Amino acid sequence: MNLEQLGWNEFFEPYYTPEADSERIVGRIACATSQTYLTYTPQGNYWAITTGRMRYLARNSADLPAVGDWVILKPTGGEQQGIIEEVLPRKSKFSRQAAGEIVQEQIIATNIDTIFLVVGLDGDFNLRRIERYLIQVRESGANPVILLNKADLHGDSEHYRVAVESVALDVPILLLSATCNQGLESLHPYLNMGQTVALVGSSGAGKSTLINQLIGRQRQAVREVRQDDSKGRHTTTRRELISLPAGGLLVDTPGMRELQTWRVEGGLSETFAEIEDLATQCRFRNCQHESEPNCAVQEAISEGTLDPKRWRSYKKLQREAKFSNSRQEKTAALVEKEKWKKIHQVMRKRNKL
């Protein structure tokens, strides 16, 4: 594939000119293991490692290449092998708080144009989870599209679309059935040449089945969901960039049963835009939206124009974002201090030579 087919566009042009570098080549990370990276390039596929300097100076895993990244690598003596010397700036980045007690960003994929949030119309359907995903999708810089999968399970699935419209303002919502190959034509505008799409959602939502239909063959393993709670087992165990017959690129991701938010800034306001707008109409500028007189938020709840469940979800996510951002800022300060410590150590070693 050439650079344009791999997703190269005008955003990346200021950072690197392939024609002006005869010793190095530009490529895109298709798959990442703990030590090596499968990289797609116009010259073929390379298995590459990062330089020791890059690994040494990395503050955390977010500073290392991730699936979707554009990198500059230098081919080595081995056949189709190379060393990654640089990661180009990211156009978009979908990430979450890594599991565990350590405050650390886990990048799911980068340089994505559109994120398909796949929701199964079975026990997987949950409006509160959709809200949480939408916050992170909007933070990523990619465009969200919600896919309501398994529409074949219901004679009339339009009421699901209406329900999602109430929490996903101005977001395209598409009904489909990956198993029955229904409604997939509505995805074509997002899968044009050079466009990159990522699939996210819970285990059992039908992402692997959808991928098999899009590529036209049984590439991904598919498992049945449990009948009692509609939860599925992980069939995708790693993130991978897949080339589609139509010319687009797709990032498959493992199902996520938990999505802890990371760096919530504008995503919360965008996802709950109608609540943020109501808050500006309150009588008091510092209204807490509890028992104050002439509170537009409480009036909307009383009048039935604002779902109290959505209001509680907003408050919960707002508290979570505030707490999470505070922890991340403290950790970031410590990490930055450690980074400069490493840089100074490298500089001192050079001066002694």
Automatic annotation (TrEMBL):
Binding sites annotated in the UniProt record for Zn(2+): C282, C287, H289, C295
Annotated GO biological process: ribosomal small subunit biogenesis
Keyword Zinc in annotation: yes
Cellular component terms per the entry's GO annotation: cytoplasm
CDD domains: YjeQ_EngC
Sites where the protein binds GTP: N149, K150, A151, D152, G201, S202, S203, G204, A205, G206, K207, S208, T209
Cofactor: Zn(2+)
One Gene Ontology MF term: GTP binding
Main location per the UniProt record: cytoplasm
UniProt-listed Enzyme Commission number(s): 3.6.1.-
Domain EngC GTPase stretches: 110-257
Coiled-coil intervals: none
Domain CP-type G, residue spans: 104-259
Cofactor note: Binds 1 zinc ion per subunit.
Protein name: Small ribosomal subunit biogenesis GTPase RsgA
